[in-house]
Amino acid sequence: MRKPLVAGNWKMNGSRDAAQDLIAGIRRGFEAGVSADVAICPPFVYLTQVGGLLDGSDIALGGQNVSQHESGAYTGEVAPAMLADVGCEYVILGHSERRSYYGEDDALVADKVVAAHAAGLKPILCVGETLDQREADRTEAVVASQLDALLNSAEGLAALKTGVIAYEPVWAIGTGKTASPQQAQDMHAFIRQRVAAKDAELGAKIRILYGGSVKGNNAAELFAMADIDGGLIGGASLQVDEFLTICQAAQ
Ligand code: PGA
Fold first, then answer.
1. Which fold has domain 5-234?
2. Distance between CA atoms of 47 and 63, rounded to whole angstroms?
3. Among candidate residues 157, 129, 131, the one with its CA nearest the CA of residue 143
4. Taking Cα atoms as reference points, which of 229, 242, 236, 234 lies closest to residue 36?
5. Residue 230, SS3?
6. Which candidate, 6, 16, 70, 241, has a CA 20 to 30 Å from the CA of 219?
7. pTM surpassing 0.85?
8. What number of H helices and E strands is found in the chain?
9. Top EC class per UniProt (predicted)?
């Protein structure tokens, strides 16, 4: 039985004051009881503050990106060990915004996933196709190659054993267009089967989150699908009530 996970990806949003209000609101809501795993992924500069605000709760902390390097002369970068050092349990990697705006390709994302795992972090590997790719009937081929960058190496496979996969169709991110529960389920089943072909136990056990315009009013029907084990939430993770409704839908 896979325990659902809901991860809030704040992206490049927030401030010290906003973080304070958001976490206070979420913690109040959690007093009513949430049985899913929940993680909050704020921008790097707020990790320590948010980590402090989450102290004593069951809510985990995560980063949104990390360097593939261990340490050294990489101006502007943040090392995996640093995320672990400030209390992160998770790190989002290969998000489509990183892939498209910062040129991260499958090989670089795979290196980051392996480096994050080596530092004791749980990688959240994002995969997903663009609208053009879907319309050209290349959805499975694109997602397969994003997965294979990890599945085809021993270190990649080992890193996924502590990790999570997030299927995020790029055309659904921040657009208000959600994949239908059946469209999402079909891809989640494809992903699970691809992982299982390499490692049957991992295929059965790995959590696969759906991301892309998940809101309070559509989360329950998505999470009801057999291979959807929670969500990676962007915009709605910045609103206390929406985020709490989504967390409650993931029981
Ligand atoms: P969204 O973002 O929920 O705002 O669509 C999801 C994501 O990018 O992880």
1. TIM Barrel (3.20.20)
2. 8
3. 129
4. 229
5. strand
6. 16
7. yes
8. 12, 8
9. isomerase
Q: Could you list the pLDDT tens digit for every one of the 251 residues in the chain? A: 899 999 999 999 999 999 999 999 999 998 877 889 999 999 999 999 999 999 999 999 999 999 999 999 999 999 999 999 999 999 999 999 999 999 999 999 999 999 999 999 999 999 999 999 999 999 999 999 999 999 999 999 999 999 999 999 999 988 888 889 999 999 999 999 999 999 999 999 999 999 999 999 999 999 999 999 999 999 999 999 999 999 999 98
- What single letter denotes the amino acid at residue 186? D
> Is residue 235 within 6 Å of ligand 1 at its C-beta?
yes
Strand ranges for the chain from DSSP E: 5-9, 37-41, 60-63, 90-93, 122-127, 164-167, 207-211, 230-233
Q: Which residue has the tokens 């973080």?
A: 19
Positive or negative, the Cα torsion across 174, 160, 61, 116? negative
Helix (H, G, I), strand (E, B) or coil at 87: coil
Query: What is the residue-wise DSSP string for 74-108?
Result: -TT---HHHHHHTT--EEEES-HHHHHHS---HHH
Query: b vs e for 67-91, b when ≥16 Cβ sit within 10 Å of the residue's Cβ?
Result: bbeeeeeeeeebbbbbbbebbbbbb
Q: Which of 214, 222, 238 to mutate to test the pocket of ligand 1 (most atoms within 8 A of CB)?
A: 214
Q: Find out whether the beta carbon of 173 lies less than 6 Å from any atom of ligand 1.
A: yes
Give the amino acid at 200: A
